[in-house]
Amino acid sequence: MSEYIKQLKVQIASKVRDVKFKDHSPLEISVLKEGFPEIRVRDERDYVILTISGNQYKYDKWYTKPEHLAEMIKVYYTKS
Fold first, then answer.
1. Helix or strand or coil: residue 9?
2. What does the pLDDT profile of the chain (80 residues) look like in tens digits?
3. What is the spatial distance between Cα 77 and Cα 80, in angstroms, rounded to a whole number?
């Protein structure tokens, strides 16, 4: 598993209650929370790709650290 994905899982778990993870590959996971669409996270070298309800969002990993992305996911789960 990539270091970015490992750190992201720790950050999300510390910020979002009742969240679960499903590992698809060393570079791809799903973030699951009951009542919300699945969030897929894929590590692509310099970028991380989030897919939510068919929409893809691409973030530069050097500017979007795992703790920042985890905070965005937390906001998504509290706003939806």
1. helix
2. 899 999 999 999 999 999 999 999 999 999 999 999 999 999 999 999 999 999 999 999 999 999 999 999 999 998 75
3. 6
Cα–Cα distances in Å, from 42 out to 17, 25, 46, 71, 79?
22, 9, 11, 17, 23
CB 20 within 8 A of CB 77: no
Q: Are 6 and 41 in contact (CB under 8 A)?
A: no
Alpha-helical runs (H) found in the chain: 3-15, 66-79
